[in-house]
Design brief:
Layout: E1 17-20, H1 24-29, E2 36-37, H2 43-55, H3 58-78, E3 90-93, H4 99-111, E4 116-117, H5 121-136, E5 141-146, H6 153-162, E6 166-168, H7 170-174, H8 192-203, E7 211-215, E8 220-221, E9 224-225, H9 228-235, E10 238-243, H10 246-256, H11 264-271, H12 275-292, H13 295-318, E11 326-329, H14 335-351
Parallel strand pairs: 1-2, 1-3, 3-4, 5-7, 5-10, 6-7, 10-11
Antiparallel strand pairs: 8-9
């Protein structure tokens, strides 16, 4: 049985499994990617123990908590951990690397497994995430893909990734399309912390010597805020603008947002947020189209009156290299057209360096 130096977050890849001993609520907010949740206390049990600690004594909290921990560990040992071989080597963590993960590690070692405890627990991993983002983002050679609403920027990013280019899909990580109507049906956005964890993991394999294509986002995607170092790097990046005709963009939007017609009341409700900008008469017209499922009319006016008028100004304000942008005409935003555009983009980008 090995008892060696403290285990740091960067050492986590050397283990057969990562066990999060925190409550399900803590795990749901954020966790180390790939970890399994084997709580030593449930959410309710943790609240009971905390109350006992405050109202009675540390001893009473440990006595009652100890019984709960033992019962939960017994359930994990006869359940999800029952089939693990003798040479299995798990890494266990809790909030701070204290009693919850410590008690689990002791039990697992008694069984005969070489269990180790993550020094500093989740808090140490969280510091690691912030440090990774701060250290790696400034090294990246970012290309900001920009274009008016409906230019298929996200699909282009996916096509670039399929062709072997380095990409960072921020909207994919944020589970949101970034616009007023960008919420995905039935898909909740991650917590801010979990978004940052996923971002740090996505940065790990990127080669700073090769370009990284990223959609030119604003500082927020839905309710997720992009970390400041990433916003700064995006703002200073070389820009590649996709230039598609309004007709081609409208056709693409109707395909990409077709699901908005499934819940017309929710769509009409979301449009109400634009009343201050466009006035009651315009919003009433848009809401009537939404209720009738007339998405072609609705999207055409949203483009003409809401998105397009502010597009050029916002790009010039947000991207310092906007005047020197590489402009890429896109006549066809079908799947095949986007794949061809991705190839052309890489050729043009390499030639212009």
């Amino acid at each position: 049985m090995s008892h060696h130096r403290p285990i740091r977050p960067a050492d986590r890849h050397g283990f057969d499994a990562i066990i999060d001993a925190r409550t399900p609520a803590e795990f749901a907010q954020d966790h180390i990617p790939g970890a399994i949740n084997c709580p030593v206390l449930s959410d309710e049990e943790r609240a009971i123990v905390g109350t006992l600690y405050v109202q009675q004594s540390a001893f009473e909290a440990r006595r009652v908590g100890g019984a709960m921990v033992a019962a939960n560990l017994a359930r994990h040992l006869s359940g999800p951990l029952a089939d693990k071989p003798a040479h299995w080597r798990p890494l266990v963590y809790c909030w701070r690397g204290g009693m919850r993960s410590g008690s689990m590690v002791q039990w697992l070692r008694l069984v005969g497994w070489d269990a180790q405890q993550l020094a500093g627990g989740y808090k140490a991993f969280r510091r690691h995430v912030i440090e990774q983002i701060s250290a790696r983002v400034p090294q990246l050679d970012i290309r900001a893909i920009v274009g008016a609403t409906g230019s298929a920027k996200t699909r282009l990013l996916h096509a670039l990734a399929a062709q072997g280019a380095q990409t960072l899909d921020l909207e994919g990580l944020a589970r949101h399309k970034g616009s007023l109507l960008g919420a995905l049906p039935g898909v909740a956005q991650p917590s801010q912390k979990h978004f940052e964890t996923q971002l740090a993991m996505a940065l790990e394999p990127l080669d700073p010597q090769q370009p990284v294509y990223v959609e030119g986002e604003s500082a927020r995607i839905g309710r997720i805020s992009l970390p400041v170092p990433l916003v700064q790097r995006l703002r200073a990046a070389r820009c590649i603008e996709i230039e598609a005709s309004p007709a081609e963009r409208l056709a693409y939007l109707l395909r990409d947002y077709a699901y908005l017609g499934d819940d017309r009341a929710a769509l009409a409700q979301r449009l109400a947020q634009l009343t201050e900008l466009h006035g009651h008469a315009t919003i009433a017209r848009w809401q009537a189209w939404a209720q009738a499922g007339a998405l072609a009319e609705l999207f055409a006016e949203l483009m003409a009156l809401h998105y397009d008028p502010h597009y050029g100004r916002s790009q010039a304000r947000n991207f310092s290299q906007w005047p020197q942008r590489l402009r890429l005409p896109a006549a066809d935003l079908s799947e095949a057209g986007i794949a061809a555009l991705a190839q052309q983009l890489r050729r043009r980008d390499e030639a212009s360096q």
